[in-house]
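Quick one: examine the sequence and fold tokens given here and explain what the tokens say about the fold. Here goes:
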Amino acid sequence: MSEQISVLFVCLGNICRSTMAEGVFQSMAKKPEYKGRISKIDSCGTGAYHIGEGPDDRTMETLREHGITDYIHAARKVSTSDFDKFDYIFAMDRANLADLQRLQQRHPGKAKVMLFGEYSGNGAGKAEVIQDPYYGGRSGFEKAYEQATRFSKNFLGEVFPDVNNKVE
């Protein structure tokens, strides 16, 4: 694939799951083998609850514990223009996917909208959702990190099969 791709991660409030996925994906995209292949990475929420706020402290702590120390983001709500700006829009769960699909019906664009968990590696038709860790403990954030890492590697491996995406 010679064209650059753009990726948007979406959850409800844009402070836990989608920011975790964006932080993980940005970190992977900085590797030399992806130079010039990924043009834009962002995240947003289907709700407007946290517009302008930074990621949840537990998201940032989890990212830092895994060596991702340069992630910065201010929450925003999904926009219909996102369907034109991004090639892939990944929902973290089925409720967010349904919201995105409703929006896309009114404003079709180039984006392929799907569950991020389609890249779980569990086989066709066995998509995972990333559960919202907001009301739970640290283990939920660690699980979200693990899923975001695995899904990102599997996605990158499919889109860029010429790059070695071994789990580190």
User: Anything to note?
Assistant: The chain has a mean pLDDT of 94. The chain is about 35% helix and 15% strand. Residues 138-159 form the longest helix (22 residues). The longest strand covers residues 38-45.
